[in-house]
Each structure stands twice: as structure tokens, then as C-alpha cells.
Amino acid sequence: MLILALSAPAGASEFSLIVGGFAYHIGESTYTTKEFVYNCGLSECPPVITEHSYNETNETIGIGYGDNYIVYSKLSYDNHGLAIYNHTTYPSLGNKYLTPGLRLGFVYGYKDTPIDQTIVPLISPTLTIHAPLGIDIETGLLLTSPVVITANIKYTF
Questions:
Q1: Which is nearest to 67 in space by CA: 89, 38, 41, 95?
Q2: Could you give all domains of the chain from N- to C-terminal order, each with its CATH number?
Q3: How far apart are the C-alpha atoms of 29 and 55, rounded to whole Å?
Q4: What is the sign of the dihedral through the CA atoms of 38, 42, 44 and 46?
Q5: What residues have CB less than 8 Å from 134, skipping those under 6 apart?
Q6: Parallel, antiparallel, or unpaired: how do β-strands 48-53 and 80-89 relate?
Q7: What is the pTM of this model?
Q8: pLDDT digit string (tens) for 84-98?
């Protein structure tokens, strides 16, 4: 699923580029959809149930300024999504290698999926892994059903 990106240090006024996107759906690798068929020749047509694999390579590109982000991703249901969120980080709780944080915002793009909502809330605890040269790897936890672990790469300039 996800979509979700990395943050500049708390309160920073700098730009970030978010790329990549990986997701792991804990405990589930597939989901089902129902398609209702009309004119099947019966008085009542049974739905066609299809099983699909979750998309776990989420093509992602986004930008950030300070703690605010707008990110496009190909989501877990192979649909296109747009996330807009604030990512607050807590450097005092981490160290020079790891920083915990929290993303709050929303994701647009789940209307024609099993979720069937145009906009869904985004609440995601994060852990940013700091690498050299302004590159960070951020992991996130989406508290959905199923729970999803996400990762993206952020370059701050």
C-alpha cells in the first residue's frame, strides 16, 4: 500500500524529493473483488469473485517542504493515489541514525477498491534511518487491515 514518504527534520525549511515505495501487507498477500454480472441468462446472476495480489512495489514520487508533503503513488490495489500529509519528527527521542515520527493527513484514490472511499485518513508512525549525503530511508506502519509496513527514500536538498 503505500505510499508514504520521508520527512525533513522537524521545523526545517528545506525541500525533499521522495522516490521509491515498498509495502509489505502483514498476514495477507491477496484480496478479493466482486463483480456483478448482468444478463448472464439466469434470473439472478451470481457475482464473479476474483482474487488479486497486493501491489507491494509502489511506484512513488513526491515533494516536501519542511514537514509538509504531497506524494503520488501506485497503491496496494494497483490504483493511483495522492497523499497529502504533515510528518512531525521527534529527534530528541532518537539518535543520529534513527528518528521516530508521525504522519498525519489523508490519501485520495481508494474509491474503486475494496475500501470504496474517495479519501481515507493517514495516521502512520514512522522511523527514519539516516544515511550519508542527505539521503534517508523511512519506514512506516499503516494501521489498516491488513497492517502494512512501508518504506521510501528521501533526498533533502
A1: 89
A2: 15-156 (2.40.160)
A3: 9
A4: negative
A5: 155, 156, 157
A6: unpaired
A7: 0.82
A8: 999 999 999 989 999
